[in-house]
Amino acid sequence: MVTGLLPTGRRYAMTEAIRRQYEELKAKYPDRVLLFRSGNIYEAFGDDAKIVSKVCNINLSESEGGKSYVAFPHYSIDTYLPKLIRAGHTLALCDQLEAPKPVKRIIKRSDGG
Questions:
Q1: What pLDDT is attached to residue 26?
Q2: pTM of the model as a whole
């Protein structure tokens, strides 16, 4: 599990299953900035996080495992998407297909494709 603190001070945890899901989508869209919806936030990791941080002026965080990430509220997507596009980046959005539930399984997500 990758853990860290968000700029809000909220503890962040990415399970291995979610990380695999993210990595599979990133492999499918390696040339795009992947924004990954998790609950009420969008996240980006690694080099994508560095791009989002720089273009959108969002604090870049680092997990306890040394992985870079950014997170922002889902309702801010309309603010950040135009900035990223104007900066010349192609994006891939991954939205949840199910509401998060207090169960111990991975929830369905889609890249829309």
A1: 92
A2: 0.74
